[in-house]
Amino acid sequence: MLFRSQLLAESGYKGEPIVMLTNKDYQYMYKSALVMSEQLKDLGVNIKLEVLDWPTMADLSRKREGWNMAASGLAIQPFVGPYSYMKLFWGSTHIAFADKDPVLEEAWTKFNKSLKLDDRKAAWTQIEGRMADQVYVFKLGDSGNKLAMTKNLAGFKPYAGAVRLWDVWYE
Asked: CA 96, CA 69: separation in Å to the nearest integer?
């Protein structure tokens, strides 16, 4: 317990309330927030869990005031790839409200302008590293989909992401 108290003191935390947003519309977000909030309480953090509906949470998370953390989820769809993150972590739409992050901006520029795959991979590594270093987001875990179907369903192909049901028929 002494080590935890020492780390909190060194961080400059003085027991002020930390507001974490979550919602019950997406159970994985709610359950993650419950676990995180209890772990933070065990560390000595004065955490206040705000359970909202998803639209209210999404709206509040776009504002600078009223919250400190949010339990949410991000997914990369194969057809969009890293571009699904660009709006979240670049420029005026940056979800961490970073007015300017020259390191991140330079990495995104390299990612967008590079013609060579290796250069794009290196830029993406820089983007992920910067997001981790600045704690814009942090990963709690992975989730996946389990699919089951009847043998009479024809044309179905498993797909990572949303279930696609075009070119599918029942025989």
From this structure: 10
Q: Which amino acid is at 140?
A: L
- What single letter denotes the amino acid at residue 89? F
Please state the pTM of the whole predicted model. Answer: 0.69
* DSSP states along 33-70: HHHHHHHHHHHT--EEEEEE-HHHHHHHTTSSSS-SEE
Of the CA atoms within 13 Å of residue 151, those in its CB half-sphere come to: 0
69 contacts 18 by C-beta, under 8 angstroms: yes
Burial category of 16 from C-beta neighbours within 10 Å (exposed 0-12, middle 13-18, buried 19 and up): exposed
Give 91-106 pLDDT, tens digit per residue. Answer: 666 666 666 788 988 9
- Token pair, residue 40, equals 């933070």
Distance CA 34, CA 56 (A): 18
Strand pairing category for 153-154 and 169-170? antiparallel
Place of tokens 């359950």: 31
CB 6 within 8 A of CB 110: no
